[in-house]
Amino acid sequence: MYTGLCLSDPHPDRAGDGSKLRTLSAARFAGRYRLVDFMLSNMVNSKIFTIGMVLNSHYQSLIGHIGMGKEWDLARKSGGVTFFPPYLADERQSVNSELDGPLQRAAQFIMEAKDEYIVLADSSVVYNMDYRTAIEAHRKNEADITAIYTKRAISPGERENAVILDIADDGRIYGINRAPYTNEKLNVSLGAYVMRKGFFIQLTANEKNCGMLRFSRILLADALERMNVMGFEFCGYTAHISSVETFFQYNMEMLDAEKRNALFDVEGRHIFTNRRDTLPTKYGKDADIRNSIIADGCQIDGTVIDSIICRNVRIKPGAIVKNCILQDDTVVERGAMLDYIIADRSVSVSEHRSMIGSNTYPVYIERARVI
Amino acid sequence: MPTERKECIAMLLAGGRGSRLKSLTEQIAKPAVTFGGKYRIIDFPLTNCVRSGIDTVGVMTQYQPLLLHDYIGKGQHWDLDTLNGGVSILPPHSKPGSTAWYSGTANAVYQNQDFIMSYDPEYLLVLAGDHVYKMDYSAMLDYHKSVGADCTIAVIEVPLKDAGRFGIMNTDSDDRITTFEEKPAEPKGNLASMGIYIFNWKSLSEYLYEDEKDPESSHDFGKDIIPSMLRDGMRMFAYRFDGYWKDVGTEESLWLANMDLLDDMHLGLEGWGILSKTAGRPPHFIAPTGRISNTLITEGCEIYGTVQNSILSVDVIVEEGAIVKDSIIMENTRICKGAVVNYTILDENSVVCEGSVVGSEYGSGGKLSVYARGSIIGNEPNE
């Protein structure tokens, strides 16, 4: 049996519009999922039922989404999901003083875990994997740490946050780097690691403020000479969302049936999410829809092309939505036109207004804004 | 067993086959029939109970209960997995001196009186599990109390010409029921019973006991219990309901009620969302070649062809060049390339093979076509 620990980075996107994306693990994917659903489903599908979840700022929607973990079969008497939100380590601290770091908060949880091994995973990476394949390799290789990676080229938007592994022919990792400027395929870390919990505690003993990125780039890099760190290649579909650009790019990839099926139609590995009883989507007589993913609860009377539409969105007659990601409860009134727009929840676009972004710079509209 | 007394609990009759639905209920009970793309008929009475503040529901099952039991689960989909009350599945069971099967609707309730008495309720709400409607039972219970009734029966006005298909209540000016006629040849009124009863449990239990001893009785509420209470001059009232209510007992009426959703998704009552067991599949995908008009589509569907005036359930695939019109397509069904489906109900896990034509155009005089679950229609291309 294994214990899971989910870690993400406190400020995944410091620049530009990205700071407006709420906690990334709560961001939408493929119209109805949140990023964290994939990591949680992977854990559960790998029979990992004790999961610690380290939370950073703006975590309310994430806790609201996961709740007791019932939808992932994690509402159980032993195990289940445990949250580690930021807290004051000392009552004399003021709210503004430095808080205990993410790992510090989870240390006790890991220390007390009954299982010998842990699987550490980043909740902003989207993939559908049975971790038991990596665990098996980890044991066979007698590795100290096994890092799960995928071979692919990375896009410019991913460069800042990508962790690239140098892997020898025998699978051993001998270097950890930032992404070079190249279009070639690289060994991209999925931010998922298998290790004995003793190693994990040892590695992070002096690290209060360690997020996922620091764990990979600093702590693990330092350990390469001392420890047997092995790579395990995952060959399925992966998406690493770290900015508005990658949020847009990877969501749009879901319009590709092959990629969509590789993520969602895997025998025995269902992706679980919080289910709400929304009505089916109603298409009006003059609706015109092409190449789009549309969630339940929508009422669509206008035109939708190459877009992803989340739950309970209304698109009125004569409205045109192209190359957009419209999140829950957004309303696009008659005659409005949107192109390359990401709308957060409950955005309202008034009659005959138009907004245009571009494929390299999709425009992000904040929650509940009226245009 | 219960730790809390309940003022009113519901008993839901879900054991019937609904034989007029023919092939659609060969393998499943009628309350388990799919409706509106992502519901099953039993979602309606269960949701009504929860939204009316009735948190204890006994579901009496008998005919083909496997899917129904699985679907109801512990009641979690309706927030009925509670510490006190919640949903209880009540299949027929044997006990000393009694045979197992439910011989009629009244007998089913009679056989479960231990369950009912464990909650010591004042009132008993008896529901048929086979109608599509949104109704606040608490308003009916308030009415039942305010008129001091022994029994209240929900009624809906139907056109006089159709009244012969229903149980008709004739009332005085205070809506007190004077006579009751089951499917009258010459109806005197047009208040049709909706199959929803509230009884004072104490007096009902006495009638059930007496009815059980009568060898001539068919042990049915409509045929035996109600007439017998009327004969004794009990205070029986009609509760008039003017919302949406559809009997979906036949293939045609099931099709019509589904199509009503295209006119009004909320069935006349917004904010009374129907709770159900949701599949949890990815959102649906409309391909560049997809053409959709006046249609309901839900999660897991992939549309490469044309769909008009139709209702598609979870995981339906309409391939390129296929045309679906005026039809209800149930879960996990595939319409292959170039196939045409007109005015049809296609049950779960079916396949319409490449180029096949199913049904006749709606309005052309042809009848509604219905295919049972697991149907393979036409020839598979490789054979």
Set down the secondary structure blueprint.
The complex is a heterodimer of chains A (371) and B (383).
Chain A lengths: L1 E6 L20 E2 L3 E2 H11 L4 E5 L5 H7 L13 E5 L17 H11 L4 E6 L2 E3 L3 H10 L4 E8 L11 E4 L5 E5 L8 E11 H7 L8 H12 L5 E5 L4 E3 L3 H10 L3 H8 L16 E3 L4 E3 L1 E3 L4 E2 L2 E3 L2 E2 L4 E2 L4 E3 L2 E2 L4 E2 L4 E3 L1 E3 L4 E2 L4 E3 L6 E3 L6
Parallel strand pairs in A: 1-4, 1-6, 4-5, 8-12, 14-17, 15-18, 16-19, 17-20, 18-21, 19-22, 20-23, 21-24, 22-25, 23-26, 24-27, 25-28
Antiparallel strand pairs in A: 2-3, 6-11, 7-13, 8-11, 9-10
Chain B lengths: L7 E6 L20 E2 L3 E2 L2 H9 L4 E5 L5 H7 L13 E5 L14 H7 L1 H5 L5 E6 L2 E3 L3 H10 L4 E7 L9 E5 L5 E6 L8 E10 H13 L7 H11 L4 E5 L4 E3 L3 H13 L20 E3 L4 E3 L1 E3 L4 E2 L2 E3 L2 E2 L4 E2 L4 E3 L2 E2 L4 E2 L4 E3 L1 E3 L4 E2 L4 E2 L10 E3 L4 E2 L6
Parallel strand pairs in B: 1-4, 1-6, 4-5, 8-12, 14-17, 15-18, 17-20, 18-21, 19-22, 20-23, 21-24, 22-25, 23-26, 24-27, 25-28, 26-29
Antiparallel strand pairs in B: 2-3, 6-11, 7-13, 8-11, 9-10, 9-11
Question: How many strand elements of chain B?
Answer: 29
Characterize the largest beta sheet of chain B: strand count, sense, and whether it forms a barrel. Answer: 9 strands, mixed
For the termini of chain B, the CA-CA separation is: 58 Å
Q: What is Rg of chain B? A: 22 Å
Helix count from the secondary structure assignment of chain B: 8
Number of strands of chain A: 28
User: Could you tell me how far the N terminus lies from the C terminus of chain A, measured between alpha carbons in angstroms?
Assistant: 52 Å
Shape of chain A: globular
Mean model confidence by pLDDT of chain A: 87
Tally of helical runs of chain A: 8
Spatial ordering of strands, largest sheet of chain A: 5-4-1-6-11-8-12
Question: For the largest interface in this structure, which chains are involved and how many residues does each contribute?
Answer: A-B, 38 and 33 residues
Overall helicity of chain B: 10-25%
Unreliable segments of 5+ consecutive residues of chain B: none
- Rg of chain A, Cα atoms, Å: 21 Å
Q: Which range best describes the helical content of chain A: under 10%, 10-25%, 25-40%, 40-55%, 55-70% or over 70%?
A: 10-25%
